[in-house]
């Protein structure tokens, strides 16, 4: 089982009371293009196959596009056929965050010029809200001091309970449940805001790695102090000029 699938199942169990059905197109707009998804394919005789792939997008009407997973010839012939039922699980980190669950079927399979799965967009999708509060887009840089190096990060969003951020493409792997501290430094006063907590998820977005952390008590105190120093610049929260 892939780590992405394990994260999805764990977070779904934690948040299943907040599951609801939504119209498909607005819900799918919450999924980031290029993000990792998990495919569960069921054959007509009931065999189940699970694999990770990449979400590409929709045509805005009735079709959804997924990268054809990198599988061998036998697996492709056995599990990727037009008409086979498929469930797509994706994580949206926007706003309150959500697990998106799409039940559909394969309508087209392309191998040239690019490997592509085309599936039908159903009228409704299942969405499980992950957080009790929204995260806000931010324009902030930070760093994580590791034993062997200092890792520069770019914060993507922020709330009083957690944040997500990008790390360098060639950066080290930070495992789920590891405790880290993202240090955000005020550009004028040099005050350091240590956002500490445990890693609760990570995704591969193209060549970039995105991690999410849930703040501990010290991190929650630091983020409240940090957010008092931020203002909306028209698109994101950033330090007051």
Task: Give an overview in words.
- The chain has helices spanning 3-15, 24-28, 73-79, 217-227; strands at residues 19-23, 36-42, 48-58, 63-67, 85-92, 98-110, 116-120, 124-129, 136-145, 150-158, 162-167, 179-185, 192-205, 208-215, 230-232, 237-239.
- The protein is built from four helices and 16 strands.
- Strand 13 (192-205) and strand 14 (208-215) form a beta hairpin.
- The protein folds into two domains: 3-129, Pnp Oxidase, Chain A (Roll); 136-239, Beta Barrel (Thrombin, subunit H), CATH 2.40.10.
- It has a six-stranded antiparallel barrel. Strands 9-10-11-14-13-12 form a six-stranded antiparallel beta sheet.
- The protein is mainly beta.
- The mean pLDDT is 85.
- The N and C termini lie far apart (47 Å).
């Amino acid at each position: 089982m892939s780590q992405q699938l394990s994260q999805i199942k764990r977070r779904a169990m934690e948040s299943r009371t907040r599951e609801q059905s939504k119209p498909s197109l607005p819900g799918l707009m919450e999924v980031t293009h290029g993000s990792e998804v998990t495919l569960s394919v069921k054959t007509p005789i009931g065999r189940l196959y699970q694999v990770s792939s990449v979400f590409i997008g929709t045509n805005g009407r009735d079709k959804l596009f997924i990268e054809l997973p990198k599988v061998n010839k036998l697996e492709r012939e056995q599990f990727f056929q037009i008409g086979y039922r498929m469930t797509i699980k994706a994580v949206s980190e926007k706003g309150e965050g959500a697990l998106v669950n799409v039940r559909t079927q394969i309508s087209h399979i392309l191998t040239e010029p690019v490997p592509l799965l085309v599936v039908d967009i159903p009228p409704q999708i299942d969405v499980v809200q992950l957080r009790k509060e929204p995260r806000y887009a931010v324009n902030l840089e930070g760093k994580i001091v590791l034993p062997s190096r200092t890792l520069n990060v770019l914060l993507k969003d922020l709330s009083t309970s957690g944040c997500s951020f990008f790390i360098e493409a060639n950066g080290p792997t930070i495992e789920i449940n590891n405790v880290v501290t993202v240090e955000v430094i005020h550009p004028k006063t040099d005050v350091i805001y240590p956002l500490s907590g445990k890693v609760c998820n990570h995704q591969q977005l193209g060549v970039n790695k995105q991690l999410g952390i849930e703040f501990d008590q010290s991190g929650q105190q630091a983020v409240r102090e940090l957010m008092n120093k931020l203002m909306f610049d028209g698109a994101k929260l950033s330090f007051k000029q």
